[in-house]
Amino acid sequence: MVIRNVELETVCGVTSTLPENTLPEFAFAGKSNVGKSSLINALMNRKALARTSSQPGKTQTINFYNINGDLYYVDLPGYGYAKVPQSEKVKWGKMIENYLHKSQMLKCVFLLVDIRHEPSANDKTMYDWIVYNGFRPVIIATKLDKIKRSQIQKQVKLIRTGLGMEKQDILIPFSAETKQGREDIWTLIDKMAAGEDLLTAEEEIQAEKAAEWAAKKAAKEAENAKKEQE
Questions:
Q1: Does 219 have pLDDT greater than 60?
Q2: Distance CA 73, CA 80 (A)
Q3: Contact indicator for 172, 142 with CB cutoff of 8 Å
């Protein structure tokens, strides 16, 4: 995905009316310290349009970012931050629920979890809540650069088990530092924005990856064969 233009178009608070957008929407949910703003900035190819903060719980509104005039990234309020009053948590929960119920253009919900840890009770609740509202969330396992490569599969299994994910559910490890995983997310968004359903898009992505790997392997074998002949 080539990012040509990004605009923070709409900011909705507790009492705001949700916009009636006509472009596809892709929402991002996650705990307050999971790196949601960093992910959105990486996907927008911007350094700080989505505000990052050392103080969790800063996203208290639903923010709609218009991407290239083609689609929206929707930044949902973070959850699970202990220092936020319970009354505020309830308000944010109602905001998110209202959005999931009323948006006519929501194509996918990306749920962020920290790859270093077992999903929390709040993560599991949000996962179940998204499923209850009729969506199969795509899990983004953030902070990939904080663990060793040898730990990745173990942590991925821990997250899948902890959330109760189904076999076909998609999980993408991601690092805001190295941008690993960004292309996979972009490709998934591109395909769904073009009208494909989630599982079809993922199957095509895996097929494309397999074809690319096979092409590279064939090229390498041809190169080796040429060296042997020389």
A1: yes
A2: 22
A3: no
